[in-house]
Amino acid sequence: MTTTQSPDSSTRFPEAAILADEHVPAVHIWRDFDARVEQVVRAHTDADLFAQWIGPDSLTTTIDEWSCRTNGAYRYVSRRGEEEYAFRGTFPFVGEDKIVQTFTWEGMPEAVALETLTFEDLGDGRTRLHGFSICDSFEARDQMLASGMEVGIHEGYAKLDRMLGAGDL
Amino acid sequence: MTTTQSPDSSTRFPEAAILADEHVPAVHIWRDFDARVEQVVRAHTDADLFAQWIGPDSLTTTIDEWSCRTNGAYRYVSRRGEEEYAFRGTFPFVGEDKIVQTFTWEGMPEAVALETLTFEDLGDGRTRLHGFSICDSFEARDQMLASGMEVGIHEGYAKLDRMLGAGDL
């Protein structure tokens, strides 16, 4: 499935839908959460909360730079035993229901994706997150899709579901 | 002319070539300078030098945030009488011959372009600058192209030529 259309509100995303855009070198991610917009936004802007859910179950994440405001930046390291993966980026825009950030895996320090996260109030206490990540080329986008990113996305959002269910936000 | 091919070294760009990419929502800018790579890079990384050449002749630029390093950010304001245009962005990557930065006009604070500047040694004391600016959509790219950006690009680089000729870098 490939689409650039926004799904209508009758579509549900209890699991993340990860889709390649057909016109531009971007990936779309849609995911619904059983929580208010401000709770889901807080899970993305608060360093301590973010570190608890980001990434696959098998990795533990430590934040070592976090300035989640317009023109701020971040860096975090995810570890599993001896393995270590460092990620960094900047925040060109942080608003109440939108975050624009860059994303780089430090193993490829010059490869930068530009991500726009939009948090939509579905009107019944649920929130739809739309992630749009654009790369410099279709090759870079396809490499990102082939990287195994979906494991971290699905397991990460499932952790966030559990935190929301437990009243941790 | 529309291309995604890198020009060969026999092509000369004494004036900037500004081209729409045919595959992705990006703009290419090529411009040659009669100076070494480190001089042209310094003109982009040093706040005082940058403020002297950026933008059209009719505007005066003041830098009010400048941290030109990986994960840093910038903000500057260009003025002509009562008119004021503020621009800001972040630096996801700053290397010796490559800078990746974001670019936003504060009048449209959520519109972020991702720019990659590459400085190539042409081997005869000249440097080729390639700018690649990708937007979220072809509409946003075409709007950028229609914004009158070329005046500031041509006049700005002509100022930089004069600074380089005067031995100011």
TrEMBL record, chains A, B:
Alphabetical list of Gene3D superfamilies matching this protein? 3.30.530.20
Q: Where is the Activator of Hsp90 ATPase homologue 1/2-like C-terminal domain?
A: 34-164
User: What Pfam family is a match, any one?
Assistant: AHSA1
Q: Please give the superkingdom of this protein's source.
A: Bacteria
- Give the family this protein belongs to, as stated in its UniProt record: Belongs to the AHA1 family.
What is the name of the protein in this document?
A: SRPBCC domain-containing protein
Which organism was this protein described from? Nocardioides potassii
